[in-house]
UniProtKB/TrEMBL annotation:
PROSITE patterns: PROKAR_LIPOPROTEIN. Pfam families: TRL. It comes from the Bacteria. This is Protein trl.
Length: 105
């Protein structure tokens, strides 16, 4: 009975902590991540301005910031969006940041 309770507790702990720093996907590494992935692009001809907005997550318990496309566009004084990218940074899923980068005019 003790082994069953121990196994159940261990399983519950693994399930609880598995999403600690965000979703582990194709663009995120388990130990360390520092990459930029494309989100979308339009047929606009050029991009003379760039704006960004960042969110931070600590231990999956505290999430701060506004990393929306609207905030990034506003920070870069952009009214016509050419492309949107996402920059992901993570250390062990303990500390993660996501930056939305908007390019346009």
């Amino acid at each position: 009975m003790k082994k069953f309770v121990l196994a159940l507790g261990l399983g519950a702990s693994l399930a609880f902590f598995s999403g600690c720093g965000g979703v582990i996907g194709a663009e995120n590494g388990l130990i360390f991540s520092d990459n930029t992935t494309p989100i979308t692009a339009t047929s606009s001809s050029s991009a003379s301005r760039e704006g960004s907005a960042t969110c931070t997550n600590i231990l999956g318990l505290v999430a701060l910031g506004d990393c929306s496309v609207n905030t990034a566009a506003s920070n870069g004084s952009i009214s016509q969006i050419k492309s949107v990218d996402s920059k992901n940074f993570s250390i062990l899923g303990i500390y993660t940041t996501k930056t939305t980068i908007v390019k346009g005019n």
